[in-house]
Amino acid sequence: MVADVILAASELVRSFPTGSAFSRSRVSAVDGVSLELRSGQTLGVVGESGCGKSTLARMLVGLDRPDSGVLRYRGTDVTAGRSKDRRLLRQGVQMIFQDPYTSLDPRMTVLDIVAEPLAAGRTGRAGQRRDRVAELLGLVGLDPGMMGRFPHQFSGGQRQRIGIARALALDPDVLVCDEPVSALDVSVQAQVINLLGDLQTRLGVAVLFIAHDLSVVRHIADQVAVMYLGRIAELGETEEIYQRPRHPYTQALLSATPPASRAERGKLGRRRALSGEPPSPVDPPAGCRFHPRCWLATDECRSVVPELRIPAGDSDRLSACHHAEQLDPLNVS
Ligand code: SF4
Predict the structure, then answer these.
(1) pLDDT (tens digit, 9 = 90+) per residue, 53-93?
(2) Which CATH number does 5-221 carry?
(3) Where are the domains of the chain?
(4) How many Å apart are CA 179 and CA 206, to the nearest integer?
(5) Within the chain, which residues score under 70 in pLDDT?
(6) Pocket test for ligand 1, best of 321, 325, 326 (most atoms within 8 A of CB)
(7) For the chain, how are helix, strand and coil distributed in percent, rounded to 5?
(8) How far is the CA of 70 from the centre of ligand 1 (A)?
(9) Which end of the chain is more exposed for a tag (fewer CB within 10 A), N or C?
(10) pTM of structure
């Protein structure tokens, strides 16, 4: 049975003003992104710094509004501006931030931090909120007896667990995790990823997990969306993306990812390494935005924007490449 769509983004666009008063221009952060998140699903969103992942995340949780496009939460258009609908979005879709060192107010106790969303919504009395905080801390593997302490008394991994407990306080349907492990030691990253996977299984929440490294999302994501310069380059089932990438950018990202097995090492050895920096989002290239870095670029690529489409012979993925059908994932060099 196919699970219900909880969150659906359609053609989201967001840009920001930049430059001086005399030479105004706009940075295109997100340019026409569409995706769906289903109940209990984990969607990984991957791409280099500056590709628009965090701007997308902020729009999905209602912290920022798109310039155009539609965001639906449980079928309701929450971009229409009705405050009741946006309140529902902010309750049902919660964010876990990248840096647990700056996302927690150092002057507040853990009790106050985790209970903050409950207090803001006037949910329960003080005693009930305290009980809920104890329950949430237990859920994320922290001792409820520590709720009177301050953030600086915890390690980075423990602080991220406090952030997760706060995000769960209102029983959300969706957790949007913006690079939740990138600020943590490698030894702690796996613990936090395992915790998120465990919570998803136990609570049935859908998770949108943002990372710049494909290897981080491989073991928790059902689907992966690869973003490049504000657009989705490829979207599909995780193992399909890893085993048979159908976009040169995905292939290049995979080249930089440690292979999971000896067999894969042989395949990855023939893939392309990514070279150069992404072009400026103030003046993105015409046609396919990846063409200045793509070893397969043709005249068509330099002038015609590739649609995100199902390549011929595929069924479980979308690729925004004119030449997706001609890509041999094992022999691109
Ligand atoms: Fe490369 Fe052309 Fe495909 Fe873009 S459309 S990824 S430039 S082959």
Answers:
(1) 999 999 999 999 999 999 999 999 998 877 888 888 989 99
(2) 3.40.50.300
(3) 5-221, 246-326
(4) 16
(5) 1-2, 20-22, 258-273, 328-333
(6) 321
(7) 35, 20, 45
(8) 27
(9) N
(10) 0.89
